[in-house]
Amino acid sequence: MARGLNRVFLIGALATRPDMRYTPAGLAILDLTLAGQDLLLSDNGGEREVSWYHRVRLLGRQAEMWGDLLDQGQLVFVEGRLEYRQWEKEGERRSELQIRADFLDPLDDRGKERAEDSRGQPRLRAALNQVFLMGNLTRDPELRYTPQGTAVARLGLAVNERRQGAEERTHFVEVQAWRDLAEWAAELRKGDGLFVIGRLVNDSWTSSSGERRFQTRVEALRLERPTRGPAQAGGSRSREAQTGGVDIDEGLEDFPPEEDLPF
Fold it and tell me: What is the pTM of this model?
């Protein structure tokens, strides 16, 4: 099994004022919505900006410290991890991938450009949106082609995490790769180890019952296949992706995940 790695780095503008609350046990929870724009390569070799909004959760003393100091528009750096959660609603099993902050720091905004969406919410241009994961595939990759002939692969990644004083947990992350990287990834098989460098994106769709659903996943920018010893070193392959053409703890049980993202 591949060594678990699970790190997220974000720099963005606070789209709204942070929301502070407490569990019945007194644990502080600070929910923030960061907004930014990634600069990606397009099919014709040019560049284009892609907007993103990500909800981040900060707990405990840091949450209390920053709760009254942060406001809409503030530039913030977040270092954290992805956390997979499951719950039941009306007999149906639900899940979400949440960004849990380990560290947060406000940033100087001098010289930084902002954009504004249709609701007047600020976004940081040339933001930072990067994820590093290492785990094992939970299934064989699913390769398909768009009507324009572009390859796209969906992968399920299980990332094991052992934090000090806690039991080992497994986080399940959906990963998507495009073009040559997708075709390379399609050769992998369930159980293979995989190192992923990518960016976080949110998908949304309407379920058969008319409910609006959301999913956070990782869009791969680079994939590496870990080896398990010198004898296999020659078989390691990697490929960088072209990113254009993308169409698209304790006390927390009292707060099941919200159904709608807060933006």
Answer: 0.83
The closest of 242, 235, 84 to 177, measured between CA atoms, is 242
Residues contacting 75, CB < 8 A, separation 6+: 11, 12, 13, 106, 107, 108, 109, 112, 124
Query: Each residue of 133-154: pLDDT tens digit?
Result: 999 999 999 999 999 899 999 9
Cβ atoms of residues 188 and 159 within 8 Å: no
Bridge partner list, 197: 132, 222
Q: Return the percent helix, strand and coil in the chain, to nearest 5.
A: 10, 55, 35
How far, in Å, CA of 116 to CA of 256, rounded? 31
Interatomic CA distance for residues 83 and 89, integer angstroms = 19
Integer Cα distance of 175 and 201 in angstroms: 10
pLDDT tens, position by position, 209-221: 777 777 899 999 9
Give the domain ranges of the chain: 5-224
CATH fold group of domain 5-224 = OB fold (Dihydrolipoamide Acetyltransferase, E2P) (2.40.50)
